Amino acid sequence: MKPTDISAPDYFHKVVDCQWACPAHTPVPEYIRLIAEGRYSDAYMINWKSNVFPGILGRTCDRPCEPACRRGRVEETPVAICRLKRVAADFKDDIKSRLPRAGANNGKRIAIIGGGPASLTVARDLAPLGYHCAVFDQDPKAGGMMRSQIPKFRLPDSVIDEETDYILNLGIEFKGGHRIDSLKKLMSENFDAIFVGSGAPRGRELDIPGREEAASHIHIGIDWLSSVSFGHTDKIGKRVIVLGGGNTAMDCCRTARRLGGEDVKVIVRSGFEEMKASPWEKEDAMHEDIPILNFMVPTAFVHNNGKLTGVTFQKVKAEYDANGKRSLVPSGEADETINCDDVLVAVGQENAFPWIERDCGIEFDKWNMPKVDPKTMGSTHPKVFFGGDAAFGPKNIIWAVAHGHDAALSIHRLISGEDVQERPLPQVHVSSQKMGIHEWSYDNDISDDKRFKVPHRDKVIALKDIRTEVELGYDVKLALGEAQRCLNCDVQTVFSTSLCIECDACVDICPMDCITFTENGDEADLRKRLKAPSQHADQDLYVSSDLKTGRVMVKDEDVCLHCGLCAERCPTGAWDMQKYLIDMTQAGKSCPTKARSAA
Amino acid sequence: MTYLAKPKFHHPGLTKNRLGYTHRDYEGKISTLCAGCGHDSITASIIEACYELSIEPHRVAKISGIGCSSKTPDYFLGNSHGFNSVHGRMPSVLTGANLANRDLIYLGVSGDGDSASIGFGQFAHSIRRGVNMTYIVENNGVYGLTKGQFSATADRGSKSKKGVTNTDNAVDLVAIALQLGASFVARSFSGDKTQLVPLIAAAIEHKGAAFIDVISPCIAFNNHAGSTKSFDYVREHNDAVNRLDVLTGREPISVDYAPGTVQVVEQHDGSKIALRKIDADYDAHDRVGALAFLQKHAAKGQIVTGLLYVDPDSEDLHSHLNTIEQPLNRLEADVLCPGSAALDKINASFR
Question: What was the pLDDT predicted at A597?
């Protein structure tokens, strides 16, 4: 293999698995260290810069970081990254003075359609640069689906208000209750750019017999949740069936439990394991005495002269073809009718753009979705950009934020007369953490603790009031314990070939057998000859140039604990622990074009 | 030196030996030696050899004297018996322990000061008697604990870190072990684990006095130009006569050598060593030839490594003395004290 080019910004970024997996590339280990130090405000600001909604995401994020967390490859469970983010939000001081201010007006006007996470991210990135941002939303308050679809017992209004206000206070013009019905009309108002962050607002229908007749007790999940959020709905029947296996279904069933539902069931077509809902959301639902029944396909709504009495299901089983593709086939068991008073349908969400005229310069694909460049978030109209669920269909908040950053950068480059396609490189800082012979500026002792559970409110109390938050969040002591579990993957092992005397000290001390000195070869061959071959070929090998004996140093990044023992044991300083901090390019950044030089 | 405990986590793909242990289970406390010390690599090699032989840790007694090398038994086999004895007195303590309980595996760990100076006589007598043991000298040619004076194994003409030339002749422990009748004699280098690990494994399996001299560079005081025990010097002057694999009826311990002439040596316990000759003229069963070979190459400044001599039909002190098979601590009172009739019989034999 060729020597690894550690000056490429992506190389070390990939080693920080959590940050690499985060769509907004939040510097996770950096803020976790600050939490361990009790510097909650600093930890919050790092988050705020990257992901804009730390308090909201600390309660609701889909956490792509956690399955990626290296800790999960070393022991059973990853670090509770998401809930540590909430800690930063919960324990911070007043940070208002640290927020940016609206920039001096540059005379440019941006229209932003929808007031959800993608739109607010665009506004936050552009307002400090002097843009005038007008945000249009059909609802009276900002937040989009974060406010309308996520139940208050998971995400209190106060948290949404706080974090949307931080953005709206940047001089944003928020036009609540203002629905955009025609893009053409908006275009005629001569905005310098338009951002569409209108979400995926339509719940998918379930067209089976009885749907129309029993309509008064069959509700579309997201519409029903939104109606509950705004106080229009405050009760439901005693026996409720929720159809669907995603996170919306989980929110529906738990909400139903709080509005009078005593016998609430979730019923899914697929198997329990393949459900789209996050494992922790399924756990929370089951904890509230909600059974999840699987492999049951709804075939009819049963009603008595229009009054819903139940749902009939066909029992199915999963079969896999030669390519591993699954299909659900009848199991041969008798159909089952389950009685109920209400049904909540949460079988998916769809985009809908009836308000975008098809001749306004925006091309749509065969699925009736706008053609959007995933790099720039631009549509086929040079001045119109998309983001969040409106761009590529339903995803989640953190993806919406990432889209928002990219779109804001594009808009800023467009209006500054720069090439939108050219994306400035992120800024990377690498600095040695050595303080003394065996002292590092980070805590390199590895904690053996298992993941700490987040305390929950007592179930009896929690189920009484729909606005009572269920999760209490970590206290300071639990947060410290959980923060110590982080392996500091951003503190990189950096190897200098010229200093190495091949004494094997690093090989002997490495607790994870990551380091091998051997003859060079191609990657497949080298991987076989590692001291402890890895099961994860997607994790990179760090290969040195030729050493004095003609061998090379190969370090498998897979399960490195970043404990720094290799560097402590190295007599010549050939290993050093260097902190890698990557500053993703956002709108308004001076644009570094040169990659950093090799360490 | 490190102040942290080594993390308990280990690589999820680590293989386990016959007993279900990973090599991490054969570790001891974390080393407090200087960063880069060759001794730590010897420690790692002992761990690897014991892991590969699936040795039960409680069947090992590790005994040492005083010095950097003699600290190392603390760093491996944390669940084994250990005795850190007086300076240079490891061989007598080991001999005594071995006589009392021949069922344990004896690992004597010593250094050049401990064995070639203050304990020179002790070393000689334990070898001469054929005590069943693995005697490892971690040889760096300097007194590291007292800041780098020449030891008795420092070569004449080699230079200290301060630039002083050594005017005394060196003790060659390998030559002396050969002369005193050791039935397994080897030399190796801490920087070459592919050679060292099988040598340690074969020595452990050997019945009789097995001696291994391991050149182990002292990073702090003896790894400079002018030293003959530095990483660079040893790598440049290393003349390996053979490579070996230890076969224990399972997978061979090491298989990454180029094919060559292979000679299988069967030891008393049925274990086999596959010797791959590198120097076609070298015969590992010829004690006299080995001595001549060593001196010839030493005169040329070369360091001969590998399994230099092995006697497959070796015997140990217990067979010479015709001692009882059972360890003394397992003998019942009636055997230990057979009564006055037996005493009368013995007394009568002297009349």
Answer: 36
Beta strands A336-339 and A307-320, pairing class:
antiparallel
Query: Cα–Cα distances in Å, from B90 out to B60, B84, B96, B137, B171?
Result: 15, 8, 10, 11, 19
Q: What letter represents residue A156's amino acid?
A: P
Residues B253 and B273: their CA atoms lie apart, in Å, by 10
CA B128/CA B174 separation, integer angstroms: 13
A-chain residues near B38 (CB < 8 A): 503
Residue contact A569–B35, C-beta within 8 A: yes
Mean model confidence pLDDT for chain A: 94
Residue type, B152: A
CA distance A549 to chain B (A): 8
- In 3D, which of A469, A598, A486 has the Cα closest to residue A11? A598
Residues of A in contact with B8 (CB under 8 A): 446, 448, 511
Which residues on adjacent β-strands are paired with residue B321?
A: none
Give the pLDDT mean for B39-46: 97
User: Using the beta-carbon criterion (under 8 Å), do B223 and A563 form an inter-chain contact?
Assistant: no
CA atoms within 13 A on the CB side of B25: 17
- Measure the CA–CA gap between B339 and B346, rounded to whole angstroms: 11
Give the burial string for A313-336 (b: 16+ CB within 10 Å, else e).
bbebeeeeeeeeeeebeeeeeeee
Looking at the predicted structure, is the pLDDT value of residue B267 above 90? no
Q: How far is B5 from chain A (nearest CA, A)?
A: 8
Is A504 in CB contact (< 8 Å) with chain B?
yes
Other CB atoms within 10 Å distance of the CB of residue B240? 19
Residue B251 has pLDDT above 60, yes or no: no
Q: How many CB atoms lie within 10 A of CB A38?
A: 14
Q: Give the per-residue SS3 of B68-112.
A: HHHHHHHHECCCCEEEECCCCCHHHHHHHHHHHCCCCEEEEEEEH
- DSSP secondary structure string, A417-445? T--SS--PPPEEEEEE-EEETTEESS--P
3-state SS assignment for residue A495: strand
Q: pLDDT digits over B140-174, tens only? A: 999 999 999 999 999 999 999 999 999 999 999 99
A569: β partners:
none
**For residue A591, what pLDDT is reported?**
44
- The H-assigned helical ranges of A321-439 are 389-392, 397-415
| CA of B25 vs chain A CAs: smallest distance (Å) | 12
Q: Which residues pair with A320 in a beta bridge?
A: A326
Q: Which of residues 509-528 of A touch B (CB under 8 A)?
A: 509, 511-514
> What pTM was computed for the model?
0.90
Backbone angles phi, psi at B32, to 5 degrees: -110, 15
> A242 to chain B, minimum CA–CA distance in Å?
41
E strand or H helix that includes residue A344: strand A342-345
Q: B133-139 and B105-111 as β-strands: parallel, antiparallel, unpaired?
A: parallel
Residues of A in contact with B190 (CB under 8 A): 504
